[in-house]
Prior knowledge:
Strand content: 5-15%
Structural class: alpha/beta
Oligomer: single chain
Helix content: 40-55%
Number of helices: 6
Order of helices and strands: HHHEHEHEHE
Amino acid sequence: MSINQLGSFSALSKDMKISHLNQLQTQVFPTIANSNGNMLIGAAAGSGKFTLALFAIYKCLDAGKKAVIMEPNQDLLNLQFELVNKVFPGRVGTLSGQATKDTSKLVNFDIIMTTPEAWDALSRRWKTRKGFELISLFVADQVQLLGEAGSAQ
């Protein structure tokens, strides 16, 4: 599918420097664009799942909401942060595991990137912390790595 067929999403595609969606992305994109339901996308590494997540984040932000991206470890978080921050410059913050600082990041950034440990520390008292009410999208990336030795670094 050509990016010219993506409607308002085509601007994001240009920021990501892609000209066409692959077969998986073409199949899943209409669901992202036209629904607000839960979704699990399972496919091989390198198949374009994270690109689909970026489309979902774009839709979330366009609706005035916030998104969370959880990576299984700090190394993957740092790698993906570079990509997400290029697509959504200045709108991305990372959690440190320190509740006071992280609560401020949750309020001040539209996209929060985290590890499971940092998210656990912040979300324990989610009903009393500002910012949680605006989260409408949670992306769990690389879930197959959760629980592996060294995944919690």
